[in-house]
Design goal:
119 residues, 5-stranded mixed beta sheet, two-stranded antiparallel sheet, Glutaredoxin, 3 helices, alpha/beta
């Protein structure tokens, strides 16, 4: 298996055990990027996501869904990686789904940050 592109980012890595159903077991605001090691688009996007640390309200984290058997795929209806979900006090409040063969563009991420994270 490839080395995760987020191992040395300093971001919190989340797994299935960090969720209770569709609830994130964390307090505060969390911007969570759902990604898979085997996805080249996730690997390419990760430096852009990490660069947002300190620019947005809330904690940035990575939900590692490399395992196709992870229930997080179904729980959050993830179809494309990367996909970003915003949680407030553990509750899902907004999402930005990646686009096939594109992932998440800089413009889409900027719009998401302006509307979902600063509302």
């Amino acid at each position: 298996m490839s080395v995760a592109p987020w191992e040395c980012t300093g971001l919190e890595i989340l797994h299935e055990s960090n969720f209770s159903g569709a609830r994130l077991n964390r307090q505060g605001d969390y911007v969570v990027c759902f990604g898979a090691v085997w996805c080249p688009i996730t690997r390419r996007f990760m430096p852009r996501f990490v660069s947002e640390r300190g620019k947005v309200a809330g904690t940035l984290a990575i939900a590692d869904i490399t395992d196709l058997e992870s229930p997080l795929w179904d729980t959050f209806r993830i179809k494309i990686t990367p996909t970003i979900l915003f949680f407030h006090e553990g509750e899902l409040r907004a999402r930005l789904d990646g686009k096939r063969f594109i992932g998440i563009s800089t413009g889409a991420l900027d719009r998401f940050e302006r509307t979902a994270l600063h509302a």
